[in-house]
Amino acid sequence: MIFISFIYTFFCFFLLWNWFFISIKNQKKIIKKSNTFVKKNELYFISVVVPARNESQNILQLLDSLVNQSFEKQSFEVIIIDDNSTDNTAELVKDYILKNKINLKILYADKNFAYSPKKQALTLGITHAQARLIITTDADCVAPPKWLETIWDFYQKTDAKLISSPVTFATNHTFFSHFQAIDFASLVASGAISLSLNMPNMANGANLAYTKEVFDILGGYKNTPQIASGDDEFLLQKIAQKYPQEIYFLADKNAIITTKPSQNWGEFYRQRKRWASKWKYYKDWKTKLLAFFIFLVNLNILAASFLFFLNFISFYFFVGIIFLKIIPEFIFLSIILIFFNHQKSIPFIFLVQMIYPFYVIFFAFAGFGKKYHWKGRDLS
To answer: What dihedral angle (degrees, nearest 10) is formed by the CA atoms of 222, 235, 379, 124?
Structure first.
């Protein structure tokens, strides 16, 4: 038990150390590449591709944030793919096209899909994209004013095949929103660090950039697991396998996309089950080992609590196991939350840590379920 706790303590500080060096590693790669990289006469143009299903309450906020980009309006296009919405999402987009000066168009996904409506919608949007650089986001997101400018500048410096950028949840006064912000920040940071170590295991399609050329060369989502979820992570792994030195995480606050947290526990459960359902499809043994290690660490806390309750271990032994987890974890999470401008979430970390072992164990088993309900559809 104590051995697992010591390993986890080291792991937390290892993550923190590498988090601080992401930008430095990127800069070293840029300098190394600049010696051989001949800058192309790149068309100053970006295609923003957004799949949308039943997003009438959110789509206008996204479009407003895109209109307010510092990037020149004539230098990017926005492609909304309506994924068979049953609300007035499409009507709102069409009305927006008439009232605003932005290169915006709407496409309509086919009603019939083999296994993943989102992958089908994204493929349709990318097929119609005019730019070399594709940036995907979700319809319930809001982009900061320098979002496109920041990603474009980074792309020009690196000629990257894929750029993963940060995503965070908006927070309000409720513990529920802070819980989600803390949980999600840890996932995004872990994915960023793994990518910087050339062991990519996580990305988010709400803030993902890659070239249309690479997408076409690799056949898009072909030969990825035929499940509804995972358009982002499995594409990341596919690109990383062919271009391991040409993928990056952009740790820049100007590139942070903000999305809405789940509004209730039922929605939260369906979302996390959808995410957890991808774990069993990971092919890389290192990713599976990491997932198992996190499961084991949290199981270790529950086991220690149970044994202490039965008087099988001493109070000091129990406290030692707890402290070896919560203190380094608190330091790591605090630093990450500061990056995401979520300082108000920091006081909630200890409360989240009390819940987290139960949360991890529960969704580890929930992820083995093949079906889940998402946006009015039963998917698998």
So the answer is: -70
* Angle of helix 315-339 versus helix 2-20 axis, rounded to 10: 20
Tokens found for residue 50: 């957004």
Measured CA to CA, the distance from residue 376 to residue 358 in angstroms comes to 28
Q: Which amino acid is at 87?
A: D
Q: pLDDT tens digit string along 312-361?
A: 889 999 999 999 999 999 999 999 999 999 999 999 999 999 999 999 88
| Residue reference for tokens 């499995």 | 234
Beta carbons within 10 angstroms of residue 62's beta carbon: 24
CATH 3.90.550.10 is right for the domain spanning 26-179+198-266: yes
Q: What is the pLDDT of residues 63-91, one digit of tens each?
A: 999 999 999 999 999 999 999 999 999 99
Domain boundaries, the chain: 26-179+198-266
